[in-house]
Amino acid sequence: MIHFGKILLLLCFIYVANATKYHTYKGFNQNSTFPPEFLFGVGTSALQVEGGWNQGGRGWSLWDYHIFTDPEFIFDGTTHEVAADSYNQYKRDIGLLKELGVNVYRFSISWPRILPLGTPDYVNPEGIAYYNNLIDELLANGLTPMITIYHWDLPLRLAELGGWLNEDIANWLGDFARVVYQNFGDRVKTWLTINEPFVLCSLGYAYGIHPPRVITPGEGFYECGRNVLLAHARLYHIYHDEFKSQGGKVALIFSADMAYGVTDSHDDAEAVEDFLAFTLEQYAHPIFSPQGNYPQRLIDRVGNASSLQGYKQSRLRPFTPEQINYIRGTADFFALNSYSSYYVYRNDSVKELHAVPSFDDDMYVGYYTVPQETTGGSMWVYGYATGLYDLLIYLKKEYNDPVIYFTENGSSDELGFYDEEKVDYYRGYLNALLYAIDEGVDVRMYCAWSLMDTFEWNRGYLVRMGLYELDIDDPNRPVFPRKSALVYKEIIRSRKIDPDYNPEPNDL
Ligand code: BGC
After folding, report:
1. b/e for 224-260, b at 16 or more Cβ within 10 A?
2. The pTM is what?
3. What is the per-residue pLDDT across 34-84, written as a single tens digit (0 to 9) for each?
4. Ligand 1 environment, Cβ below 6 A
5. What is the pLDDT of residues 302-340, one digit of tens each?
6. Is 469 a catalytic residue?
7. Regarding the domain delimited by 4-507, which CATH topology (the fold level of the hierarchy) does it fall under?
8. Where are the domains positioned within the chain?
């Protein structure tokens, strides 16, 4: 019997083989260089690298609670308690940034380190001092700080009050952001409000993979997204109303991956549109479209499904006209995280795949990652650089040629110096980026993820994305450069991609 899945896989390989013009050495764009003002950076987030979980007056985060109370939660049984020890070793981190030659360091501020109970009635002076030291040391070394205000470490107490399902979160996060702007805004000029609404809301409130591990894919998922948009807008307005004189920029970080129809059918073309509507435009359209609000196809789809299911109102709760205005236009640039691309399809089998009600069922799309162009390496990142090129062209058209900061991109690999798959991944994606810049896409910054191996959320240290390898068995947490670090350093230095550059361990 012919297996349908195998045919699909074969089709994918044929498609990929025909379409991968931006990743191959043959396709390397060696005539172009990154513009002189283009910025290179590297990123981390607080819970993933700081450690010091109970040092310096830090309060409890929701992650602490889940990690400590459920031994099964983290795949490999590791914890974030020490992580890369950046709380104590931030000067080492700055040494690495200097070694790489990056311009920008993207990191996040731990909400429970600044406000241990989540609310502004007690501001922890040791938390403020830590970030002041980090920022000052970065600036003293000629590095630009770029701060994510919320990268998923919700204070436990606010989680108990409903977290992202409580509309008050816009006020809670607003109060936190005000403390952050007040204390650091004299020196920090680029603010990323919230990391990846789709990932935050799908993993936390639909699939139950990240805390609070609530499985409400048909309701909580949308409520979370709605509250993210309201909270982001609040942070944007607080900054522009109260801290305008600081002269910085504010944006929400979107995660986006390109989608391709498995076949040329009309249904699969619709599946592409729907995939992008649910995963990206749900969040980007209210901010970047001239009319604001959710995309109409999302409103219609969820509204119709809800009504068929007997709901009196849409599970995608509508914004009021005031809220639409409040959210519209609240971005000074388009912040993009992207890692992979997807094949999508629509046929009767899709109806069997998803729970009802759920956003997946509403979306009515089957999907799987485009098989990666290179093999091995990563547990979940399937590098398809052509997808990045197509995505950037799409964003340029769809959102009226925005200024784009590419705030996160990278891959994982085996331990050891020779992280060849990761090297290929970086070269491929930076190459696609160069082509997109040549096509007039206004990308001003690229941020590799991540500086060193980070605590990869529920996957612990099974996934190693660092340019520097972290020895998690050594209490001093030493780090070692991988080949990808040297290759990235050379790209930054030369401002172009040399596929033949083949460094050895002591070339740094
Ligand atoms: C998150 C990072 C994470 C990365 C790799 C992104 O979605 O922003 O925190 O480390 O994916 O898993």
Report:
1. bbbbbbbbbbbbbebbeeebeebebbbbbbbbbbbbb
2. 0.95
3. 999 999 999 999 999 999 999 999 999 999 999 999 999 999 999 999 999
4. 45, 48, 195-196, 199, 255, 337, 408, 449, 454, 456, 465
5. 999 999 999 999 999 999 999 999 999 999 999 999 999
6. no
7. TIM Barrel (3.20.20)
8. 4-507
